[in-house]
Amino acid sequence: MPETELDAFTEVLNGPVYVVTVAAAGERSGCLVGFASQCSIRPPRFMVWLSVRNHTYRVARAATHLAVHVLDRDRCGPAELFGGETGDEVDKFAQVDWRPSVDGSPLLTGARAWFVGRIETRIDGGDHVGFLLAPTEVSPPLRTTPALLRYDDVKEIDPGKPA
């Protein structure tokens, strides 16, 4: 893959990764996401970027909500599943414990923390589309500071659908 102008900058980053799940039109999907961040405090908003080549993106186009999960560093199994397999070929939810949220979004029961967000808008960002989320449901507060799964922990996973 050719280098970009941002490679020298992004190579030093080691941000958290997220598993994003969605249900719409009778389908469920989920993927490992590295492009995501809180983007507003008042009102609270979070932006998730999904690759346009990804099964999760195709399901999310018809969705009203997305669920965003953080995993503990020692929970690489779900990261490998959601990052290394594609929903075009595999039912990932047959391989993990989950439950539906109030709106029906799949919630991974093994996640350290999660929230469900209503999709406020979608933004074309090139090969990714941004989903601006307003939180509607949030996991209980944490009592300890977890060691979260980060990019360095998953960078060797071969993507199910290359970006």
From TrEMBL:
<protein>
    <submittedName>
        <fullName>Flavin reductase family protein</fullName>
    </submittedName>
</protein>
<dbReference type="InterPro" id="IPR050268">
    <property type="entry name" value="NADH-dep_flavin_reductase"/>
</dbReference>
<dbReference type="InterPro" id="IPR002563">
    <property type="entry name" value="Flavin_Rdtase-like_dom"/>
</dbReference>
<dbReference type="Pfam" id="PF01613">
    <property type="entry name" value="Flavin_Reduct"/>
</dbReference>
<keyword id="KW-0560">Oxidoreductase</keyword>
<feature type="domain" description="Flavin reductase like">
    <location>
        <begin position="13"/>
        <end position="158"/>
    </location>
</feature>
<dbReference type="InterPro" id="IPR012349">
    <property type="entry name" value="Split_barrel_FMN-bd"/>
</dbReference>
